UniProtKB/TrEMBL annotation:
InterPro entries: NUDIX_hydrolase-like_dom_sf (IPR015797), NUDIX_hydrolase_dom (IPR000086). GO terms for biological process: nucleoside phosphate metabolic process; ribose phosphate metabolic process. The gene is nudF. Residues 41-174 form the Nudix hydrolase domain. It comes from the Bacteria. The keyword Hydrolase applies. The keyword Hydrolase applies. One of its GO terms (cellular component) is cytosol. This is ADP-ribose pyrophosphatase. Keywords: Hydrolase. Gene3D superfamilies: Nucleoside Triphosphate Pyrophosphohydrolase. Pfam families: NUDIX (PF00293). One of its GO terms (molecular function) is hydrolase activity. CDD domains: NUDIX_ADPRase_Rv1700.
């Protein structure tokens, strides 16, 4: 019967260990007994923030992304790479402050995303942050030293997604999720809601070094 097979890992080995990801090769038992090789990119995971002000605008950052060679309009976001003591919510507070010089008093979970589960465990949690207030300007380095903050109405952001002007997967998910939640008045989850697919393999291995 389909849907009941247990995909047992018969062997697993790490073949590359980089700064922000690792490549693991697993030998996995398939239905019928065949063992297939699966390459898995392990990732720290990330958080992102839809920060909305009293006028209903959301804070977005325009940042250079070297793999595609241009600046993208994105949500404030960052890796869960600060060590085991930092929770996703604390990381979201940190990233919002570092990239936009903002803090928020009211937080909810907006949406969870598994970015490409066919080959990576990379996943992110996107928060909605409201009741914003300004912080002192943060010191920024590398690509972040060049970023700019832009405020967009939600409807404008949705239009830019559908026009192909906002293409970052995190931003697309966050913009469309907040628009739909507003339109349908869908209650959002508390920040303590379980994150089923939070990546942990890479962080756990690094913590044991």
């Amino acid at each position: 019967m389909s849907g009941r097979h247990e995909f047992v890992v018969r062997d697993s080995r790490s073949v590359y260990d980089g700064a922000i990801l690792s490549l693991r090769v697993d030998d996995v038992e398939m239905p019928g007994g065949r063992v297939a090789r699966r390459e898995v990119v392990e990732h720290f995971g990330a958080v992102a923030v839809v920060a909305r002000d009293e006028e209903g605008r959301i804070a977005m950052v325009r940042q250079y992304r070297h793999p595609i060679g241009r600046r993208l309009l994105e949500l404030p976001a960052g890796l869960l790479d600060a060590g085991p003591g930092e929770t996703p919510l604390v990381a979201a507070h940190r990233e919002l402050a570092e990239e936009t010089d903002l803090a928020a008093d009211r937080w909810h979970v907006l949406v969870d995303v598994a970015l490409s589960p066919g080959f990576t465990d990379e996943a992110l949690r996107i928060y909605l942050a409201e009741d914003l207030h300004a912080l002192e300007a943060a010191e920024r380095h590398d690509e972040e030293a060049d970023l700019t903050v832009e405020w967009l109405a939600v409807d404008d952001a949705v239009s830019r997604v559908l026009a192909g002007e906002i293409v970052n997967a995190t931003a697309v998910a966050g913009v469309l999720a907040v628009a739909l939640a507003d339109d349908r008045r869908i209650p959002l989850r508390d920040v303590t809601a379980p994150w089923v697919d939070e990546p942990t393999a890479l962080r756990e291995r690094r913590s044991h070094r």
